[in-house]
């Protein structure tokens, strides 16, 4: 059980590692459990930070991807984190991209996995079958290559969330704002070393999305995993953590981030 720090409006986990600061951003239905293996395997070496996104707590007029970006920007400033490595999955990747575009000088590297920001297939604009448990179960299972990763606890949590009137509304509002926030025309501005980790069987942000990010972000490297869906850090935790840690270590020892992709091994 991980300890959640509460400071004012911020709720977050922070490990005791004294190394590089690594900020992890979860997706629309995400939580700490999404990053369990990263926390366990990297937390003693790196300072791993997982802010809990206030998707259901922001004022209604601020419930959007830009509202979440402002929250993360304020949080990182409040904690005075410097030279961070920022990683995001799905919606969290979208927020990480937007943060990188606005605060690039404070970032050492960017890590995206199954990120939105270009294209995504999700639940859609509403939840017409939200009271249908089997529908929610199948949708949750489709996040992964192996449906067994979608445990009953995970399905129950998603089902409970989408059937909460307040939460359901905020999910739709946030998802629609993310679709409107297409970043394609701005991605060429990202210069920091960027790692793209994609599941070859991702049905939500298919592999072609990762390839397009790779084309648009010059200083980037795409790694794809076999038999893996939208959440590689959950479905292939050992491989994901290994690739991520190697990337961070390589970035950390380079005196310059220029043309990082050319000397990636």
What do you see in this structure?
By secondary structure, the chain is an alpha/beta fold. The chain has one domain: Rossmann fold (3-Layer(aba) Sandwich), CATH 3.40.50.1820. It contains 9 helices and 8 strands. The chain has helices at residues 36-42, 65-79, 91-102, 133-141, 152-162, 165-180, 207-216, 232-235, 237-253; strands spanning 5-7, 10-14, 21-25, 47-51, 84-89, 107-113, 194-199, 220-225. Strands 1-2-4-3-5-6-7-8 form an 8-stranded mixed β-sheet, sandwiched between helices. The radius of gyration is 17 Å and the shape is globular.
Name of the level-1 CATH class: Alpha Beta
Question: How is the biggest beta sheet arranged?
Answer: 8 strands, mixed
Q: Hey, roughly how much beta strand do the residues contain? A: 15-25%
Count the E strands.
8
Summed over residues and divided by their number, the pLDDT gives a mean of: 90
Low-confidence stretches: 261-265
Distance between the termini: 36 Å
N-to-C SSE series?
Answer: EEEHEHEHEHHHEHEHH
* Count of DSSP-assigned helices: 9
At CATH level 2, the architecture is: 3-Layer(aba) Sandwich
- Which overall shape is indicated by the principal axes computed on the Cα atoms? globular
Name of the CATH superfamily: Alpha/Beta hydrolase fold, catalytic domain
CATH topology label: Rossmann fold
Coarse structural class: alpha/beta
Kindly summarize this structure in a few lines.
This protein has 265 residues and is α/β, with parallel strands linked by helices. The chain has nine helices and eight strands. Strand 5, helix 3 and strand 6 form a beta-alpha-beta unit.
């Amino acid at each position: 059980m991980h300890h959640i720090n509460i400071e004012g409006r911020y709720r977050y986990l922070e490990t005791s590692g004294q190394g590089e600061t690594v900020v992890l951003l979860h997706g629309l239905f995400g939580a700490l459990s999404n990053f369990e293996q990263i926390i366990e395997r990297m937390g003693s070496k790196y300072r791993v930070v997982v802010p809990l996104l206030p998707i259901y707590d922001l004022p209604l007029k601020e419930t959007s991807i830009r509202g979440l970006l402002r929250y993360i920007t304020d949080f990182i400033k409040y904690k005075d984190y410097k030279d961070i490595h920022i990683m995001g999955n799905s919606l969290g990747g979208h927020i990480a991209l937007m943060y990188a575009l606005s605060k690039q000088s404070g970032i050492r590297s960017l890590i995206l996995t199954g990120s939105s920001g270009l294209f995504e297939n999700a639940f859609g604009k509403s939840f017409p079958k939200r009271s249908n448990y089997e529908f929610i179960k199948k949708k949750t299972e489709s996040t992964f290559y192996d449906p067994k990763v979608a445990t009953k606890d995970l399905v129950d949590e998603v089902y409970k969330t989408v059937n909460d009137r307040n939460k359901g509304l905020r999910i739709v509002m946030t998802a629609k704002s993310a679709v409107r926030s297409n970043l394609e025309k701005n991605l060429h501005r990202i210069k920091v070393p960027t790692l793209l980790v994609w599941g070859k069987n991702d049905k939500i942000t298919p592999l072609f999305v990762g390839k397009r990010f790779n084309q648009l972000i010059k200083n980037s490297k795409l790694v794809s995993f076999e038999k893996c869906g939208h959440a590689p850090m959950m479905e292939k935790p050992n491989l994901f953590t290994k690739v991520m840690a190697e990337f961070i270590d390589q970035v950390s020892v380079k005196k310059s981030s220029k043309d990082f992709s050319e000397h990636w091994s």
